[in-house]
Each structure stands twice: as structure tokens, then as C-alpha cells.
Specification:
Blueprint: H1 2-7, E1 16-20, H2 25-40, E2 45-51, E3 64-65, H3 69-76, E4 82-88, H4 94-105, H5 115-127, E5 130-134, H6 150-157, H7 160-172, H8 177-185, H9 191-194, H10 212-217, H11 220-227, H12 237-247, H13 251-261, E6 264-266, H14 272-280, H15 294-300, H16 306-309, E7 314-315, H17 321-327, H18 329-340, H19 343-348, H20 351-359, H21 374-377, H22 379-403
Parallel strand pairs: 1-2, 1-5, 2-4, 3-7, 5-6
Length: 407
């Protein structure tokens, strides 16, 4: 892991180095390892943390950190050569951010709710002379892999004593017995047993803006049924991680940042050597005695704060995303009207549904603290607005760009 970070620190003379720094294991470890390496060279590191607007509280459970700057600050303060900068999303809404990004990324940008703070980080880095920006996007599958899927392997092999030890350890760390049982048994349960547990879930396409007529013409229901659950139910970690790794295509986004801002985004957690190494480690090492990510936590002891390594909570990126959506209601309505004139967008996207979602948004002049936040952060609201609406608009705008329509 250290070698992977070291390889990412090569930069032309005069170019600075920065990193993303959140409350998560991966960006924190990348930042800490980079700071240690750079300190030996008498060089500094600028760490950027995205945070919601000042005063934001949000209706998130206590198990989530909505402002990661506090935890990130604990990491930064451990290294005298780290300059820690807290970044807030810019004044533009998601559509304006998307408009400026699409010509460089040349593909529909899926998580445009994160574009606001991500763009500000890259713009700030470029103005500061930073040429390399480190991230840790692949760490969940490599260095900080948690190993919970090992329970399914133990169950299949009938290793009941080891399974009991891991289950007890997981529950000691806060996991409920239902989740533990589902992790161990889930891959082997037939669909007719699993289906009643999910009978209240929305349809398979509820999180997309796909037109029902287009889906029917493509026989999507049959294709989805043939594919089964997503992600597929695996009983061994190597197959599961390889599946997720093959889905990732970060290069297109990294090259877009380099083209637009002159900032080279590098991910040590995606280093091929680290990836190969982590895939060959017996999965039990990742979850010793039921301690999730135990290999990572042991390796980072003393480098990262104990409060971070022993945490039971996770951070939330762009926790205030829905406020930008509400403020952009009128701009979204205009964009949807433009999409009506696109033959491809009208065929592929459920524009009627997207228009209803936009029409149901609160008045853009609504003070942020008066926005009914639960409507957006609930599972149904998240599917409707963060996924279906924002991704639908992103795909639609991409279609218009390809068709040559700007008006």
C-alpha cells in the first residue's frame, strides 16, 4: 500500500500534491501515507474535505456523519505538513455543474449531486498549483475490504465454530443479528424465500428515468429477471470483488479533470499490484474475530486516529444535495422542456415522470431549513430525486449534446 502511494507522488518540479480527505478509511489512509512520505522529502500536502453548508443539520440517522470535516481534521492534525482545506459546493446548481463537465467527460455523469464540491476541489487545486490529486475510490475492494462475505463461505463449508466467532464479533461491533444471518445465508436462499422479505420494495426500474415503453421494447423485465439480484449473490469475496472492479471505469472521469483543470487524479487503492495482492489474501484475514477490515485497521494503527479506526459510523457525501435540487427547480423544468424536442430523449426517458418530480419540488425561494428534507433522504425520495431525476437529466443532456442541440 505504501509503495502504491509512493508511486503516485511523482510530479514534475514545481507541481504541488493534494488529496481528498473524508471521514472514511480510504482517503484518510491515502492522505496519511502520502503525508508521511512527503514529510521525509520536506514537502507538504494539501488535503481537501467536502462539507455541507455552514449550519446544515439534515435528517440523517446518528450512524451517519453529515459533516466529515471534523473527523478529517483529526487526521490532518496528526501531520505538520498537511494543509487542511474545507470545501463547500459552489453557488451553481447541478445542471450548471453538469453543463461545464460534460464536454470533458463525454459520457453521462451519474452522481451529479457530488459534482458541486468535487468541481470546487479541482478548481481550487488548480489555482493553488496542485498537479496531482490523490483519492481512495477503490479501497473498499482492496486495502480496506471488510470481509463480511467470509461468513457465507464458512456457512457453506460447515465451519460452525468459526462462523459463531465471527458472528459474535460482528454483533459486538454493532451489527444486528438479522444482518449477520442475512450475510451468512443470503447467497444460498432461493428467490421464493427471499422475495417475501422484499415485497414492499419498488420495482426494479424505480430508481431509473427509463421510459416504460422503451423498457418494454427492449424486453428489460426479462433481462432483469435473467440477471437476478444486483449485485449478484456471491459466496466468495474474490468473485464478488472482481465483479465490482470490472464495473468501475474511473479513467474517463480522471482524464476529464486533467483536460479541464490540469489536475491529474490518481488512486493508489486501484494500483494493480495492491489489487493483485489483496485478491490473493485469504478472506478470513480481513475479518479476524469479527472485526471488519481488521487487516487494514491493524496496519493503520498508530497512523490514523483510534477514534476513526474503531468507529461504527459512516460519512455522507454531499449531505445537503437536495437543497441545490430545490433551488434549481426552474432550470430543471426548462431542461425537461428542451428534452421534449429530442427524439432520442423522448423515446428513452420517462419525461412525464421527471416533469412530475420537478413540479412537486418546493418553491426555490423556500429557506433551506424549511425544506421537507425527509422527502428526499428517505429511500423512496432518494430513488426518485437523487437517482431517477438527476441521472435522467444527466443522460438527457448528454443525448442533446451528442445530437448537437444547445437551445
Amino acid at each position: 500500500y505504501t509503495q502504491a502511494v509512493r508511486a503516485c507522488l511523482r510530479v514534475r518540479p514545481g507541481g504541488g500534491i493534494g488529496s481528498h480527505l473524508s471521514a472514511g478509511y480510504d482517503s484518510a489512509s491515502v492522505t496519511a501515507l502520502a503525508a508521511r512520505e512527503l514529510s521525509a522529502q520536506a514537502k507538504g500536502l494539501t488535503a481537501f474535505t467536502g462539507a455541507p453548508r455552514d449550519g446544515f443539520t439534515g435528517p440523517y440517522p446518528s450512524s451517519r456523519v453529515i459533516d466529515e470535516s471534523g473527523v478529517a481534521g483529526e487526521v490532518a492534525r496528526r501531520f505538520s505538513n498537511i494543509e487542511h482545506r474545507i470545501i463547500h459546493a459552489g453557488p451553481d446548481g447541478p445542471l450548471r455543474d453538469l453543463e461545464r463537465t460534460l464536454p470533458y467527460v463525454e459520457t453521462p455523469f451519474l452522481n451529479i449531486c457530488n459534482l458541486g464540491w468535487a468541481r470546487v476541489i479541482e478548481e481550487t487545486a488548480a489555482r493553488s498549483g496542485i498537479k496531482v490529486l490523490l483519492i481512495g475510490a477503490m479501497g473498499n475492494l482492496t486495502a480496506s475490504f471488510e470481509g463480511q462475505i467470509h461468513l457465507a463461505r464458512l456457512f457453506r463449508q460447515g465451519r460452525w465454530w468459526q462462523l459463531a466467532i465471527l458472528a459474535r464479533g460482528l454483533m459486538r461491533e454493532g451489527a444486528g443479528w438479522r444482518r449477520v444471518a442475512s450475510t451468512a445465508l443470503g447467497p444460498y436462499l432461493p428467490d421464493w424465500v427471499r422475495r417475501p422479505r422484499h415485497r414492499n420494495r419498488p420495482g426494479v426500474f424505480a430508481h431509473t428515468a427509463l421510459s416504460p415503453a422503451f423498457a418494454a421494447s427492449m424486453d428489460m423485465d426479462r433481462l432483469a429477471a435473467a440477471r437476478g439480484s444486483f449485485p449478484p449473490r456471491f459466496s466468495d469475496s474474490r468473485t464478488a470483488r472482481l465483479f465490482m472492479i470490472r464495473l468501475a471505469d474511473p479513467g474517463v472521469y480522471h482524464h476529464a479533470s486533467l483536460a479541464e483543470h490540469g489536475v491529474d487524479i490518481r488512486d493508489p487503492t486501484a494500483d494493480r499490484r495492491l489489487l493483485d495482492f489483496c485478491l490473493t489474501i485469504p478472506e478470513g484475514f480481513f475479518i479476524r474475530d469479527g472485526r471488519r477490515a481488521s487487516l487494514f485497521r491493524d496496519a493503520m494503527a498508530g497512523l490514523l486516529p483510534d477514534t476513526m479506526l474503531n468507529r461504527r459510523i459512516r460519512g455522507v457525501q454531499a449531505a445537503d444535495w437536495y437543497e441545490k435540487v430545490v433551488a434549481s427547480r426552474d432550470a430543471m423544468a426548462v431542461e425537461l422542456a428542451r428534452l421534449r424536442s429530442s427524439p432520442m430523449a423522448s423515446r428513452v426517458l420517462d419525461l412525464d415522470r421527471l416533469c412530475r418530480l420537478v413540479a412537486d419540488l418546493p418553491d426555490p425561494a423556500t429557506p433551506p431549513e424549511q425544506i421537507p428534507a425527509e422527502r428526499f433522504t428517505s429511500p423512496d425520495g432518494d430513488m426518485a430525486y437523487r437517482l431517477a431525476l438527476l441521472r435522467g437529466l444527466s443522460v438527457g443532456r448528454f443525448i442533446r449534446m451528442v445530437e448537437g442541440g444547445n437551445g
